[in-house]
Amino acid sequence: MGNDDQSSPQQGLFSLSDLIKKRANADINKYVSREFQDYGYRLAMELDDEAHKSLYIKMAKTVDRKILEQARTFVIDANALSKARLFMWKVKELRGKVKTK
């Protein structure tokens, strides 16, 4: 019985330095340094709208995250041709509901 990494009970665990290296080598925008920027960038990628990523980053900073998450979930569940357009419509609808309350 040798010291086999595959039979280790911690097979799925990584050290912190491994995670940092993996994150550093990932295909992400190198100018992202804040959480809201990362969220906006990931949202743009998820909605297949990389051309407008700065808009999503600004929305992640200024719009309530609860509204953005509800709209994102709505778009994921829908079968839309334009995910970005549907997302913007849903955000506008949700913001209108919040203002009327």
Describe the 3D structure.
Helix content is 61%, strand content 0%. By secondary structure, the chain is mainly α. The protein has one domain (18-100). It starts with 15 loop residues before the first helix and ends with a helix.
Blueprint (SSEs and pairs):
Blueprint: H1 16-24, H2 35-46, H3 53-62, H4 65-77, H5 83-100
Helix pairs in contact: 2-3, 4-5
Overall spatial form: elongated
Arithmetic mean of pLDDT: 83
The low-confidence parts are: 4-8
Order of helices and strands: HHHHH
Number of domains: 1
- Biggest sheet architecture: none
Radius of gyration: 19 Å
User: What oligomeric state is this?
Assistant: single chain
Please state the structural category.
mainly alpha
Distance between the termini: 67 Å
User: Which bin fits the share of residues in helices?
Assistant: 55-70%
